[in-house]
Specification:
Length: 269
Amino acid sequence: MKSYDCDSSSESEDTSHAISRSMIQAPWMRGNVVGSNWGWQGGLPGSSSGPSSSTAALPDHQPPNYGTFSQEESQVPGRRTPLGAVGLGGFYFQGGQQNITTAPHGPPSDENIPDPACSGQNSRAESRGASSNANIKGKGRQGKSVRLNINARERRRMHDLNDALDELRSVIPYAHSPSVRKLSKIATLLLAKNYILMQANALEEMKRLIAYLQGTGGAAGSAIVAPPGFDLQGFPAAAKFLQQQQALQAENARHNDGNNEGGGSGSTM
DNA sequence: TAGGCCATCTGGTCCT
DNA sequence: AGGACCAGATGGCCTA
């Protein structure tokens, strides 16, 4: 006997997922990540080591169908990620309808709504019959709709988490190619951590270099200039730095001129 | 076929 | 009470 798992039949048929399955049919990255100089530090907690061992399968392989939600899912691209509500960005679009996350009781056609027609189609749900029974026997006196609401919330939460991971994948440098398998979750997190460390090191190195240049070229009185033919268009920070250097140079020149004039007049007097 | 990865359900805990 | 978060359990998919 299965309780209210019919919503979990969601997995049986899916319509859309963030990344299509075809995007990841190719073999796993094959060192694309590890090849970079900021690859893996330390091992994976709970797994053996690095991405080479984590032959990530895709999350997309099994189409999650969000129960009765699946139709909306296929039609509304931005269903997930209510993070914007907490100022964390992301997108959350409900086609002008109320926000699911903020209106837990009234999603227009959320998976929260038990679908009487979807029962008995999920092998997973069937396999979970024991736990469902336990739920019913134990504290599980929750109503069916309550349980479905909880399940739906948890599903959304995990989808939001996955969306955030996707965004993280999009900003960390690894081969973003359809022929390259998507990074696993753990690989994404570890890679991001290493990338941050690498950026921090690069920043420190840059600061030291700037300090060195200021200590040498500046002391000698020679302005730091960009090499001929060097286009600063793509380097706003460097352009700003050079601009500041030139302004500082001009200021020093004025100051020196003032000192010379004043000193000369004073000495003569 | 084993192992890795994942989605989902579920119950517990904590917070508002 | 309701929601968020977490961890365990379960089963599917994929690759070596």
